[in-house]
Amino acid sequence: MKLLLLIIYFAVLIGIGLYCRKHATDVNGFVLGGRSVGPWLTAFAYGTSYFSAVVFVGYAGQFGWKYGIAATWAGIGNAIIGSLLAWAVLGRRTRIMTQHLDSATMPQFFGERFGSRSLKIGASVIIFIFLIPYTASLYNGLSRLFGMAFDIDYSVCIILMAVLTAVYVIAGGYMATAINDFIQGIIMLGGIATIIVAVLKSKGGFMAALDSLAKVSDETVATTPGIFASFFGPDPLNLLFVVLLTSLGTWGLPQMVQKFYAIKNEESIKKGTIISTLFALVVAGGCYFLGGFGRLFSDQVNIAADGYDAIIPAMLSGLSPMLIALVVILVLSASMSTLSSLVMASSSTLTIDFLKELFFRKMSQKKQVLCMRGLVVVFIAISSVLALIQYQSSVTFIAQLMGVSWGALAGAFLAPFLYALYSKRVTKAACWICFLFSSVLMVANIFFRPSFPEVIQSPINCGVAAMVAGLVIVPLASLFTPKPDKGLVDNAFACYEKKTEVTQKTALGK
């Protein structure tokens, strides 16, 4: 029965990819779905790209163990800051200006907005370098779940997931990704709710589980009684850093911001904001809430030997075969949706902003789409090989690099992108300074971590420091560097002044 569910699930994904081939004949169609994607598809594409197996298996287990029930704040932050505010602050302006500048990727936006070929190439190089390890990390956590649910080697799981994702992305481009994300999102919503109920029921229900959690003590963490069932947990400061990186960080991630490029109209943005926020509240809030009860299963897991990735599988191991099958499909859905989003961002950026810009200036639309399809295969293959290397050896470098990747990308792009949408004073040099500062800081965190101040030694805290520093660096550097060309800036911001007729229910007349 479990295998039958997987086969049906895979068949649907491939069928949608083949159905969407007609939308992927040119660059605009392949990368942005013709900028005609509605609110439900865009909101679910945003949410499913946001949350992967890394969140469900890795982060939920790790932060739930460290902070107890207070880890739920990470999910709430993801919903309010990472979804609601991201849509409200970035959604409309991103859609309007990127269409006006005819940009399909984040580097292309920087290139057109600042009239800088070098800025465009620099941004594409940063994305290429830091998205690869991020993509490889998506396979983390799947091995334990597949080992628990099926008698299938993890290597087969990686290859299967990679091939299926490649097929529907190559065939149908962004539209196939968006439709599949919608299906995968529904699975994630239903799966999370069902699993939470089942796990809590196994511990006597919510109140009984909470009471048991209040009795758990760990003097190496805190001596306060009931600390793991408390409002802010044993370490509020580091919990705040987790909330900020996983929430505010999405504002600067290319694969997330690119979802706003493709949205259809004003009404879609309003609806999408609500749908995306509720999706994040259920999925992220549910994941971290579930992880908060991880210490109740301490008799089934050895953190020192197995690591934090063993916590969630241990919590799920006692469920019925049907529920375990649902969990596997849920985690596969989360991982495949994020993987498809990342490889789309990587392939489009490398094609449009690097290869075409440097080597093939006259590349036709047809050849660009063909190149992107080829690069989808390349990126998925590289990420699969890295995941296999990590699985078959004791290499932990790749897993650590995931946190560094998120921090570097968010730190490099969040402030320049945000200010470029709102301010005419931002300079090209200020963007370069922010790009270099965040990239160098996060790479240094890998090699010289013990030399860093204790508060920013972890990649998560260092990533937050990079983002916050960028918000200060960009406006400050813009004061002391050559001012942008007035004509260029006025042209970019002219899109906001364009007159548009709307119905009276949307805007009152005089």
Fill in the keyword field for this structure.
single chain; about 500 residues; mainly alpha; Sodium/glucose cotransporter; about 75% helix
What does this structure look like?
There is one protein chain. This protein is mainly alpha-helical and 510 residues long. It has one domain: Sodium/glucose cotransporter (Up-down Bundle). Helix content is 74%, strand content 0%. It is built from 21 helices and no strands.
Query: In what range is the share of β-strand residues?
Result: under 5%
Anisotropy-based shape: globular
Helix percent band: over 70%
Mean pLDDT: 81
Straight-line N-to-C gap: 64 Å
Find the CATH superfamily.
Answer: Sodium/glucose cotransporter
Radius of gyration: 22 Å
Number of domains: 1
Number of helices: 21
In short:
By secondary structure, the protein is an all-alpha fold. It has one domain: Sodium/glucose cotransporter (Up-down Bundle). 74% of the residues lie in helices and 0% in strands.
Secondary structure: elements and pairs:
Blueprint: H1 2-19, H2 27-32, H3 39-50, H4 53-67, H5 72-100, H6 106-114, H7 117-136, H8 142-149, H9 154-202, H10 206-214, H11 236-248, H12 254-261, H13 266-291, H14 303-306, H15 311-316, H16 321-358, H17 365-392, H18 397-422, H19 428-447, H20 459-480, H21 486-497
Helix pairs in contact: 1-9, 1-16, 3-9, 3-12, 3-13, 3-16, 4-13, 4-16, 5-11, 5-13, 5-21, 6-7, 7-16, 7-17, 7-18, 7-19, 8-9, 8-16, 9-13, 9-16, 9-17, 11-20, 12-16, 16-17, 18-19, 18-20, 19-20
